[in-house]
Amino acid sequence: MKLKLCCFITFILLSCFARAQENKEPHVCxxxxxxxxxxxxxxESENVTQLIMATGTEAYTQSIHNVIAxxxxxxxxxxxxxxxxxxxxxxxxxxxxxxxxxxxxxxxEELRISSLALGTTFNIGDAFYITMxxxxxTEWISPSLQFQWEDLGISSNDINIIVETNxxxxxxxxxxxxxxxxxxxxxxxxxxxIKDVFGPPSRNHDINIVNDAYASxxxxxxxxxxxxxxxxxxxxxxxxxxxxxxxxxxIHAYRDNVGVSSDSEWHYEPVLNGFEEGMSEAIAIIVMxxxxxxxxxxxxxxxxxxHWNHSRGMxxxxxxxxxxxxxxxxxxxxxxxxxxxxHWLRYGTGATAFRKMYIEDPEIFKKFNxxxxxxxxxxxTLTPDRNLIVNIFETITEEIxxxxxxxxxxxxxxxxCETDIEKKVFMLTFTSLSWASFTQxxxxxxxxxxxxxxxxxxxxxxxxxxxxIDVSAASAxxxxxxxxxxxxxxxxxxxxxWDNVQYGASKSIVNDYHGLYDxxxxxxxxxxxxxxxxxxxLSYDSSGPFTRDLMQNQTxxxxxxxxxxxxxxxxxxxxxxxxxDANFWPPGIIPDRKITDLNQSGLYRWELDFFDTAxxxxxxxxxxxxxxxFIDIQGVFGGxxxxxxDLIEGKLIIEHESYGEEADVIINNNSFKxxxxxxxxxxxxxxxxxxxxxxxxxxxxxTHAIYISDDCTEHKIDFRTxxxxxxxxxxxxxxxxxxxFEDIIFTETANLSLCPDEEANFSVANNFPxxxxxxxxxxxxxxxxxxxxxxxxxxFDILSILNSDAGTYTLEIDFFGCQISKTVVLNIENxxxxxxxxxxxxxxxxxxxxxxxxxxxxxxxxxxxxxxxIENLEYQSGNTIKVFNxxxxxxxxxxxxxxxxxxxxSTEGGSGLLPAGSYYYAIEYVTQDxxxxxxxxxxxINY
Length: 943
Description:
Layout: E1 7-11, E2 58-62, E3 66-70, E4 78-82, E5 91-95, H1 108-117, E6 129-133, E7 139-141, E8 159-163, H2 177-198, E9 205-211, E10 218-222, E11 227-230, H3 243-255, H4 273-294, H5 320-323, H6 342-360, H7 364-378, H8 386-396, E12 399-400, E13 403-404, H9 405-411, E14 423-432, E15 439-448, E16 457-460, E17 468-469, E18 479-482, E19 490-496, E20 501-509, E21 530-531, E22 572-577, E23 594-595, E24 602-610, E25 618-626, E26 636-641, E27 650-656, E28 665-666, E29 671-674, E30 681-682, E31 696-697, E32 701-709, E33 715-722, E34 732-737, E35 742-743, E36 746-748, E37 752-754, E38 760-766, H10 769-772, E39 778-783, E40 789-791, E41 795-798, E42 807-815, E43 818-828, E44 852-853, E45 856-857, E46 870-871, E47 878-884, E48 890-895, E49 917-926, E50 932-941
Parallel strand pairs: 8-9, 9-11, 22-23, 26-34, 37-43, 45-50
Antiparallel strand pairs: 1-10, 2-3, 4-5, 4-6, 6-7, 10-11, 12-13, 14-15, 15-22, 16-17, 16-18, 18-21, 19-20, 19-24, 24-25, 26-29, 27-28, 27-32, 30-31, 32-33, 33-35, 36-38, 38-41, 39-40, 39-42, 42-43, 44-46, 47-48, 47-49, 49-50
Helix pairs in contact: 2-3, 2-4, 3-4, 4-6, 7-8
């Protein structure tokens, strides 16, 4: 039966549960597409209790996205939907679990499609009914229902949170009044903060928080019944154990039926997990940070009294550059269930990507939702896809980390939303700066991606696995497959990136167990499938018991065949520690899994090879920092690399936009470390120390890194938006690819041709004036044709030139110790004037000066440079002007421009004024003599 109810699932802890099973027993880590509360015969061992007359039943529609029936007590056996009471000509009957408290949620589009299959034409506005059958003499019939569009995102919308004290689910009872009071105390305070960060919810609606046995360790949002399944857990301090997770699910509830990770029928579809889950996790962290600021005394203990940079167990913000790897691409956060821990990495990197957006623009989420809802309101057939989401971001903001926002999104692997059906290597790394050592816990996996991005388990209709099918598809036979690459041998090689030389001997990867120690070998590689139903665990028999989840080394009571399903995803953990007396945790790690004698500091590459017995070998490469210099690190450290050369020599100037100038740092072995005034700042507020008076943070904000090569031939710049740091020491770990840096360009005044007594203007501009113009380490020296120094400013003027002023003027720029030379030629023309001419008339062509564009536009309403002036343009016969941003995208194009009429709005799409920054202009004009001339240069827009 095809699943129709949308839900979102989020993990709470860093602990890894032993294993996940789809049937037999409830579990905490199934991908978020299952509604276990409404489906009949969910588990093979589930007991069906006697039906009890349901009470408190209601049914309602929500715009065109959802219709549902709910009840407070009792149960129903099935329901159907039709054009009249009792009919099922819109949707056929569907069975219900005896513990269910609602039907599936169904959108108009879903019911339109199902009605066509039943020979019914069903339109928006048509009346329909839900009939509930409890197996007794009478049935409950809903009042007449209709789908009608409701505008989304109205500013007055709010959600009303209700902690359910009438019933629980999955065998749990309802929340007690004490539990309700404690939970509502948090919800009441945090809900307004969510609205302030996220904007109004899509609709006015109630959200029921239900105590659900299936939500142990997780929270699940079901948009159909507007329900968050959760549990009540307190930590050792008596505080709610999962406040960040409670917020996360409310973010899903705010979007409700129109979550961005939805399919064409408005049901959950994991393809856009990176956007829906990434935004929700980012906002949960942001809201928790704001909550502590507003209510520092709410929690009794210190655990949550910190600056929130990442969620518990997902510390991937401070080392995001190293985690933004191709291998996290997938259509589903839970592609490998919880077997590899990839879901931790995906949640952590997704949250980091969207927090970067928020740090640059705290209104970004409100702007996104307003535009998203506006488009849905304008076009009721619109459904989310990646192109739509990217286009919305391109509409509401131009750039992130000084990169066009569309390109930036594409560079974040967690937002890729594509899956390559292939074998690959995945590595999860936890980096620790504590215990007086620099330690990394590296967990390596050899995976194969199957349909829909599945990497842990999948289903086929045949024993050989040729025909993969959806787990819910109808099939004469079903065979369950679990990760098939256990026991594939591999090799771990360490390469010094700065000289491409191998360090030490390669280590063998024994891909036999998920854990710290060597364990019992798993079945495989290619251990084969288990039949879903079997009498012997080997052949398919629909009359047999459920055998799909037989474990290896587990004998089934009615047969002799051992199960083929692996106990866990095979993996190898390698540990590195660079302290002289390496500290590893936990103790007991076998020596073959340690790398402890690597003391030379630098940027290394780990080449991971797996030798597939059924095909070509598979390799992947990861950058990692290693070495003694990174023990007890403070401030900022990182790596620098290139695709075109090994050794990167030179220096970096790494600075924060809100702080002053900082010392440069020399690159050593493609790595660097440096103290910064904005990193590793001791925290003096006890409400942000988390019980640790030694806690330090970085200052969130925009940073830039200027790279200058050792031979001074390269001057480049790149940008990073950072958060609070690693969580204890406030450290930032960055990875720069110099090939991706933008060139820093100085553009001097074009050669001048002037008449005697006219004014000559000499200047130089750069393409990052907001960063470079006022830097005291960049100096300028202009010399006249005789070699005399005439100015130490970026620009200077000769108010009335003489014939003797003609010649070549030289500009020497000292750029952080590197010399950049520029020249400007001043030509003095033989100009004559007509003494009899009327001084008020238009000058003749001989008396017209050069066209001189203003180099600054500041449309801020102060009546100074609010419009772009181009001197002498009005005396030309015609002109065409084009303006481009730094990436060559045209933003302004006009013919016969009138000086002083442009205020900085783009003529090439978008809305509003262009963002502050450098823009390149190309002005082509025709003189009164019919001569075509072109001038180019840089201008700067500022506010």
